[in-house]
Amino acid sequence: xxxxxxxxxxxxxxxxxxxxxxxxxxxxxxxxxxxxxxxxxxxxxxxxxxxxxxxxxxxxxxxxxxxxxxxxxxxxxxxxxxxxxxxxxxxxxxxxxxxxxxxxxxxxxxxxxxxxxxxxxxxxxxxxxxxxxxxxxxxxxxxxxxxxxxxxxxxxxxxxxxxxxxxxxxxxxxxxxxxxxxxxxxxxxxxxxxxxxxxxxxxxxxxxxxxxxxxxxxxxxxxxxxxxxxxxxxxxxxxxxxxxxxxxxxxxxxxxxxxxxxxxxxxxxxxxxxxxxxxxxxxxxxxxxxxxxxxxxxxxxxxxxxxxxxxxxxxxxxxxxxxxxxxxxxxxxxxxxxxxxxxxxxxxxxxxxxxxxxxxxxxxxxxxxxxxxxxxxxxx
Length: 380
Description:
- The protein is an alpha/beta fold.
- The chain contains 11 helices and 11 strands.
- It has helices at residues 21-35, 40-50, 53-60, 67-79, 103-113, 115-122, 135-149, 228-237, 243-256, 272-276, 297-312; strands at residues 153-158, 172-177, 182-185, 193-199, 212-219, 263-265, 285-290, 317-323, 349-357, 360-369, 375-378.
- The chain has an 11-stranded mixed sheet, with helices on both faces.
- The N and C termini lie far apart (52 Å).
């Protein structure tokens, strides 16, 4: 098996500075907090790792002290050793045991026995996600835009990764509302079928069919789905007790092989205008991003929003965004404390649409969501 580090979609800067052990411990503790309520396995492992100097020390060598990266590296190493007893705790690898007293000691021994390989991956890889389930959130937002724009939409996805969400009009959707009502959308015969639970007033279901025309993805390091190592790394970045996400990823990747989507290497701020020039100038343009802006940094987010505003001066533009409030809408809609998690709440996403008039953004908040797309609370 070729080394994951050789896959361009999994690369990150090799000359980034190492971080302190304390930063690594904080990164693991922060990730344990993010995983709580969604992944019992990763909450347990990250919490234990944050208290273990040897395991946390592996992460101190990484360009970013991201606890999620350490768990992804362990997942990838276990993919390469699928008969190891640790797999019994990993549903993505066929396991079915819940967390018990043996989970952490076995994980710790497994990882430290492969410390050199772990360090190699930690210094050459970055977490990549292309969650197909998030299409259930973006599809209704694009339906709202289509109603406003009244034309065939051009589409750019920023942070497209492998471009799977660019094919979201080829997926089938079923929305289960809290009153018992259900809505369906998309083609009836499709390999990818998605479900989303919806609560709150005002949700009347999305369009049955989206008027999407030409589309392009934009990503700093596009993932090549024809490369099995790069696809395996995407698998490894999925939390190991969420096998349905792996199934959807693989199903969507197989479907996209028949209808490839182009993802251009570039930055969401500096390259947005040049990518937009490749789409028909008379088409209403949608730029969308999902769980992307946290990776841009504060200056990058400001530059990205400025690029959107500049592009909106040149042509009709709608921005569909699905991000946690503090790294997404806060840039254009400050002061919305109601869109941030309260005490004891898990981090959640905010689905929104923005357009520009006279240089100023007009923002509509559509829903709050879980970050992976299984649930949303539609706002009236």
